[in-house]
Structure formats: structure tokens, C-alpha cells
Amino acid sequence: MNLHVLPAGPIQTNAYLLTARELGEAILIDAPGGIWAVIEPILEREKCRLAQLWLTHGHWDHTQGGAEVVRQSQARVCAHPDDRVMIETPEIMERFMGEQLNLQPIHVDRWVKQGEQLVALGTTAEVRHVPGHCPGNVLFYFAAAGAAFVGDALFNGGIGRTDLPGGDFAQLERAIREQIYTLPDGTVVFPGHGPKTTVADEKAHNPYVSA
């Protein structure tokens, strides 16, 4: 499995493209604006079909390119139902952002829940619900690869903001401790913005949520 880290969109949101050449398939985690133009040549070069789009949460910067991705690839979409309103009626986000973002609704094929196992690229990923930044924020944990894609719950030396609608610092703090800090210390954490980190580093040094 190859990992492509692809910051895109107006605020450089991380999209993660995972490809398996031997299977001819790929999955995309999050879809910032313009991401299809970025991933299409990679898919062609690696001779992979985009089979699935997994959304860590429903905020506009992670979903802005989702409708185009689905239209171009027919990828099946997974997301958490607590963010259903934002994903299916994204125009509500324009109200609190105060700008036109040209957002389009995304049809979700599978609503996932805490503890569910997703099968992709010859392996499995565990879904863990990490609300607080956003009601439906989830992480996707690949135990075999020692990697967790956590959306905006946790950053390298930071956490997701909790002042947007649906945010709750106490809930986020609890979720980080229960759902991220309980992963093996060596787990590589891939956040929605900025560089990767590890569970051990954040438990030891994160100034917002200690272990």
C-alpha cells in the first residue's frame, strides 16, 4: 500500500490517497477542493481505480472536492452520521463561514459507527469516533500499518478548534484520551492539517491534552 499525502484546497487541507497497485484499487481519505485534478494522474500512473472515499468529518474544507471525486470515479463514500447535515446540506456552512464556497452535497453510501471495521486494499481499518471538533469526526486506524488518519481531532502539537458550531472542548479532550491516546504509542498520526506526528509524541508534549 502506497501513501500519497496531498495538501489541497484554499487552506491546504490534507488529503490522503492510499493505492494498492497489485489490486488496482485506491481509497481517498478526505476531499479538499480541487483534489480530483491532483489524484487523477496518480491513479492513472499507478493503474488504480478509486474505489472508496472516506470522510473524517463534514467540515467544508474536507468535503469541498467530494462531489467531483464521486462524479468522476463513482467511489463509494463513508462518513459518520453525526455530520450528515453538513455533508448532505453543505450550504449551512456558508452561513457561519460568511462566504460563498460553492459546496455541493455528497451522497454517502455507508454511515459508519464506533468500532466498525472497513475492508479496503487487502487490509482493514477500524473506525473510532472522536467528536469535539466536529460532531461526526472519526479516525481510521490501520493496525497493520501502524497508522491513524484522525481528521481535525488532533494535530502535531495542537488540537482542532472547538469554537465552531458543534464544537466542545471537554468532549474533544475526552475523545482524544479515549480514542487516540489508547492506540499504540508508535502509531503514526496523520492529521487533517500540517505534518504527521505519533501517539507517543502527543501524549508527552501536546500542550492542550496530556495523556
Strand content: 25-35%
Q: Please state the structural category.
A: alpha/beta
**What would the average pLDDT be, to the nearest integer?**
95
H/E order of the elements?
EEEHEHHEHHEEEEEEEHEEH
CATH topology: Metallo-beta-lactamase, Chain A
Helicity, as a percent range: 25-40%
> How many β-strand stretches?
14
Distance between the termini: 31 Å
CATH class category: Alpha Beta
In short:
By secondary structure, the protein is of the alpha/beta class.
Describe the structure.
This protein is α/β, with parallel strands linked by helices. The chain has one domain: Ribonuclease Z/Hydroxyacylglutathione hydrolase-like (Metallo-beta-lactamase, Chain A, 4-Layer Sandwich), CATH 3.60.15.10. 26% of the residues lie in helices and 30% in strands. The chain contains 7 helices and 14 strands. The protein has helices at 35-46, 60-63, 66-73, 84-88, 91-97, 169-180, 199-205; strands at 2-8, 13-20, 25-29, 49-54, 76-79, 110-111, 117-120, 123-129, 138-142, 147-151, 154-155, 158-159, 188-191, 197-198. It has a 6-stranded mixed beta sheet, with helices on one face. A 6-stranded mixed beta sheet has the order 7-8-9-10-13-14. The chain is globular, with a radius of gyration of 16 Å.
